[in-house]
Amino acid sequence: MKNNAPLVNFRRLSIPTPWWLVMWVVIPYLLWKALRALVKLLPILGRNWRSLALVIGAAWLWHRHGWIWLVMVLVVAAGLGGLWWWRWRRSCEQFIVLPLLAWWRRLSVYAVHWREAMTVCRLAERFDGKLTVPRLLRVRCTFATDEVLLRMPRGQNPELYHKAAANLAYSFDSRVCRVYSGRRTNPPARPGRWAPLLRAVDRVRFRDRPRLVWLVFLRRDPLRRTVPAFPVPDEPDLTALPLAVREDLETFRLRLLATHLLIVGATRAGKGSVQWSLIRALAGGLRSGLVRLWGIDGKGGVELSIGRELFSRYEYTDAAPMVTMLDELVGIMRARQDRMQGNIRVHTPTLDEPLYVLVVDELLALVALLLDVELRNRARVALALLLTQGAGLGVLVVASTQDPRKEVVELRDFFPTRIAMRLNEPNQVDLVLGDGARNRGAIADQIPADPSMRGVGYVVLDDRPEPARVRFAYVTDDEIRAMASTYAAPPVPEPVRPVSVAPTPDKPPKRTVYRPGPLLPDSLTDFLDGEAA
Ligand SMILES: Nc1ncnc2c1ncn2[C@@H]1O[C@H](COP(=O)(O)OP(=O)(O)OP(=O)(O)O)[C@@H](O)[C@H]1O
């Protein structure tokens, strides 16, 4: 039998019932607690409103019309989903498949193990006797990765998460976890009538939020498969040349405008695929004459000769013509410098003033391995000039090398953009990508030498400090031949104005004198004079 007797019988104890206590203390206290729980619940409900709406809708249907209707609605929904997938797969993936996957991964992996994993990875903070765990805000999925957004407790910075990355990966059953402190996406372009309003909303949505950190867990490695060559754009977008696929399956696009590019990688790492992907992305401009490609193949023509027709100038045999070619390019740059001085500050490529891209395969062969000291010095001086002044003048250098050793390292800092393919030693990573790059996740020395991983490397993206792992598209020999015949460079006589003269046997070589000035700072003049001497 049910016992309805009160816990404390005030009447029997002859104690007056303390109604005032219930009215003014217990009830307000309970109300206060309920209000706090509701306030805490609101953001969770807000984040999960879709799931909530679905559950409430399904419960209402069952209650009102019975389970038969519920099953029928589910079957019709599945059929419509299948049709959507069949006809408009991309949008179906974007709006149905990936959000469902993200919901499931959040429930089954991250929410379940979050507190435990954060605590054992030493990312929880204790303050005033209370444990504060990083807050799990959002889970987003691609077909290869889980992207988890968290808010750091006060007193932490993203460096802590970089250090804990390996532990985090294994805690959530993955082998790799990358940590990104910046935003994962940029505000979309907003054309049209509502643009000002939408841009104002975007300014709030995409505001800088330093305490947010993204953890990107690899579920499978999407870079295991060879990436086929990208289609050739009719007009190259020099601010976004498609070269590679990133781990999140996005396309890595290189901003080539006003920068020089250095590609470093051990032998057979796949540096050729970076060069050819870049040339392919520029091919439309080569045919129209907007871009002029010059090539120096320090490997005796093994790498670049196959696409000879794409190059306006090309040298691959002797060192002397290679160095003369560098001098000629410096001459072109100087002439352009004179034309631009006082008129414009950054060059924009046109058919009359095209963009010059010098591709040097194996930089070491030019700056370190030449036996002729005079030629070697001339090459280094010309390269230093091109690298320090060419970017803004539309004369760019794309060089590759196997070894970032001393001679290359001297020039290395003049390359604003660098790519690290498979490297032999851990300390080379920071040499190539900059201090701390390896700690921030660029483990280029751990890329396997296995042929299935050729063309994989690390790049630094414009919008975040953490390097990204990418796989460059592989342009086959047949594709290069086809490209060379379709996009062959038009024959254009180059306006040549060498700045130094090649040494002749009976005449001592003439020394180039470098004038200081606004475009040639004193420190550089000293360096170049020292090199020339
Ligand atoms: N992106 C890629 N995807 C798949 N395979 C690739 C890729 N890049 C290169 N390879 C394969 O790797 C081999 C070596 O590539 P590549 O010649 O470009 O290397 P490298 O770094 O230039 O080597 P080296 O410095 O010795 O010339 C190629 O023959 C090709 O089969």
TrEMBL record:
MF-aspect GO terms: ATP binding; DNA binding
InterPro entries associated with the record: FtsK/SpoIIIE/SftA (IPR050206), FtsK_dom (IPR002543), P-loop_NTPase (IPR027417)
Q: Where is this region: Disordered?
A: 493-533
Residues annotated as binding ATP are: 265-272
Domain (FtsK) ranges: 240-430
Classification via Pfam families: FtsK_SpoIIIE
Q: Which UniProt keywords apply?
A: ATP-binding, Cell cycle, Cell division, Membrane, Nucleotide-binding, Transmembrane, Transmembrane helix
Gene3D superfamilies, from UniProt? P-loop containing nucleotide triphosphate hydrolases (3.40.50.300)
The record lists the membrane-crossing segments as 13-32, 68-86
What biological-process GO terms show up in the record?
cell division
**Do the record's keywords include Cell division?**
yes
By what name is this protein known?
Hypothetical cell division FtsK/SpoIIIE protein
What is the originating organism of this protein? Dactylosporangium sucinum
Ranked from the top, the taxonomy reads:
Bacteria, Bacillati, Actinomycetota, Actinomycetes, Micromonosporales
